Amino acid sequence: MSSPPPCPACASTLTYEDGLGNYVCPECAHEWPIKAEAATEEAVRVWRDAAGKLLQDGDAVTVIKDLKLKGGGGVVKQGTRVKNIRLVDGDHDIDCKIDGFGAMSLKSEFVRKI
Ligand SMILES: [Zn+2]
Question: Would you call 111 exposed, middle or buried from its count of C-beta atoms within 10 A (0-12, 13-18, 19+)?
Fold first, then answer.
């Protein structure tokens, strides 16, 4: 958790959270919602591969470890190339299609950008 931002009204840095979803400035009594800032952070989310490189929609990646599929669906082997990924929100944050397997979801931490 980062420290509260300075007051947008008087630039005081003595701001604090009131525990009710707002920041409060003790110097000028200005209050503003914490949520607005959280939403901004969400909008600039970035996806990175296992090596920390930025991923973008349409990138091609390789799988860096064998990935067992649920339900006995086989194993996506290390080194499998995946073209045209699509970045999504969620635990498995990459949507893609893999030859021989069809549509599936991967985790960005298990791929590397080609
Ligand atoms: Zn203030």
Answer: buried
Distance 42 CA to ligand 1 centre (A): 26
For 82-101, the pLDDT digits (tens) are 999 999 998 899 999 998 88
CA 24 to ligand 1 center in whole angstroms: 8
pTM over 0.85: no
Q: How far is the CA of 44 from the centre of ligand 1 (A)?
A: 27
CA distance 38 to 42: 6
CA distance 94 to 84: 10
**What is the DSSP pairing of strand 22-24 with strand 94-98?**
unpaired
Q: Is 7 exposed, middle or buried (0-12, 13-18, 19+ CB in 10 A)?
A: buried
Q: Is residue 39's pLDDT more than 60?
A: no
Whole-number Å distance between alpha carbons of 28 and 34: 17
- The pLDDT value recorded for residue 30 is 96
